[in-house]
């Protein structure tokens, strides 16, 4: 066989192989060309997911930290100096307003009172005699006034001594739980001596601060939620006092709320996580964050109208982790497009494949 014939045979075989390899692809291409959605007049709409706008509640919350305080708290101290004669309380016990907690020796004061009571009897008799003499014009008015002033002075001394005797009994100023004791019977105490602490923790105060830009949004009567350190449950409270000035160092406003603590589970002095609801809307128009598209001068969404994507400018309000409030530009029951946003063009036909 000549060299020329061999070359022709090789070329023919190569052509046959090429035809065999490419023919399935040609058939596949032809079959795909006949499927719906291609140039043969099929569905060219972009598949998208949608979201139907419904009213739902939303709140604007402000988080802060604070400190839990007892509703009433006082360091018990004696108003006078003296030797402790009796202690009438047990550490950690509950006491009632007016209960005697501690008694200081008052023997000297009682002796002084006895002496003054004797003196006041003599002064009263003297005043009566001078009064009779004055009525008979036997003495001058000045002499009578001297006797009367002496009587009144002794009576004032008696009142002062009685007040000092009363102060030898240290009484509970309010209902509460008394803490650790720092004195013993026989100790000498003065007004500078701390005897114990008394706290009323049936109610709690929660002190916290907020940035000055929120000062106008917080008011008396507003509700808060707080959680004490080491606890999982949230308690509620009510704001009852707002500092009428801004701290120039921290640029914050001090707030105080009150909450009940009937079980006594939360201890005064605890660290607290505080949540303030600045605004509550029961029927807000909330949409998924991914539905928004920023543009020059604002934001827009695509709304499904007549099977096409219609761009709509919107105004936003409150935000949560996954949604944002729409304040204008939409109405309830509108269907927003939430996927394929980068591919969308105004009035582009779309096919809704999923709705939330």
Question: How would you describe what is shown here?
Answer:
With 356 residues, this protein is of the alpha+beta class. The chain folds into four domains: 47-57 and 282-355, conserved putative lor/sdh protein from methanococcus maripaludis s2 fold (Beta Barrel), CATH 2.40.420; 63-71 and 200-280, Efflux pump adaptor protein, beta barrel domain (Elongation Factor Tu (Ef-tu), domain 3); 78-100 and 174-194, no CATH class; 106-167, Helix Hairpins. The chain has three helices and 19 strands. The protein has a six-stranded antiparallel barrel. The protein has a four-stranded antiparallel beta sheet with strand order 6-5-3-8. A hairpin with a 2-residue loop joins strand 14 (293-295) and strand 15. The radius of gyration is 45 Å and the shape is elongated. The relative contact order is 0.19. Residues 24-40 have low confidence and may be disordered.
User: In one word, what is the shape?
Assistant: elongated
CATH arch. level architecture of the largest domain: Beta Barrel
Major β-sheet strand ordering: 2-9-12-11-10-13
The ordered string of helix (H) and strand (E) elements is: HEEEEEHHEEEEEEEEEEEEEE
Domain count: 4
Count of helical segments? 3
Number of strands: 19
Major sheet description: 6 strands, antiparallel, barrel
Helix content bin? 10-25%
Mean pLDDT: 89
Helical/strand content category? alpha+beta
Instruction: Please report the distance between the alpha carbons of the first and last residues.
Output: 77 Å
- Global Rg: 45 Å
CATH level 3 topology of the largest domain: Elongation Factor Tu (Ef-tu), domain 3
CATH superfamily of the largest domain: Efflux pump adaptor protein, beta barrel domain
């Amino acid at each position: 066989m000549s060299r020329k014939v061999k070359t022709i045979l090789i070329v023919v075989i190569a052509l046959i192989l090429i035809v065999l390899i490419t023919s399935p692809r040609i058939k596949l291409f032809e079959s795909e060309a006949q499927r719906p959605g291609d140039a043969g007049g099929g569905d060219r709409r972009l598949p998208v997911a949608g979201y139907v706008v419904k009213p739902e509640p939303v709140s604007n919350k402000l988080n802060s930290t604070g400190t839990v305080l007892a509703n009433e708290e006082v360091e018990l101290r004696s108003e006078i100096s003296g030797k402790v004669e009796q202690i009438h309380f047990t550490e950690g016990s509950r006491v009632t307003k007016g209960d005697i907690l501690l008694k200081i020796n008052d023997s000297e004061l009682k002796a002084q009172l006895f002496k003054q009571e004797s003196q006041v009897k003599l002064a009263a008799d003297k005043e009566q005699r001078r009064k009779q003499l004055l009525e008979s014009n036997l003495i001058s008015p000045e002499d009578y006034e001297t006797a009367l002033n002496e009587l009144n002075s002794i009576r004032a001394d008696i009142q002062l001594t009685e007040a000092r005797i009363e102060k030898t009994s240290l009484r509970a100023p309010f209902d509460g739980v008394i803490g650790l004791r720092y004195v013993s019977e026989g100790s000498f105490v003065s007004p500078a001596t701390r005897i114990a602490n008394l706290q009323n923790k049936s109610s709690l105060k929660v002190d916290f601060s907020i940035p000055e830009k929120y000062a106008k949004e917080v008011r008396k009567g507003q509700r808060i939620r707080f959680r004490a350190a080491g606890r999982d449950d949230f308690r509620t409270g009510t704001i009852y006092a707002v500092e009428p000035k801004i701290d120039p160092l921290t640029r914050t406003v001090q707030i105080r709320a009150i909450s009940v603590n009937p079980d006594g589970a939360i201890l005064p002095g605890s660290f607290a996580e505080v949540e303030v609801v600045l605004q509550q809307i029961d029927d807000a128009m909330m949409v998924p964050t991914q539905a928004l598209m920023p543009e020059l001068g604002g934001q827009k969404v695509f709304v499904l109208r007549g099977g096409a994507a219609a761009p709509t400018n919107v105004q936003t309000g409150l935000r949560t982790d996954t949604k944002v409030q729409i304040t204008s530009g939409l109405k309830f029951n509108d269907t927003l497009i939430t996927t394929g946003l980068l591919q969308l063009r105004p009035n582009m036909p779309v096919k809704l494949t999923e709705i939330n």
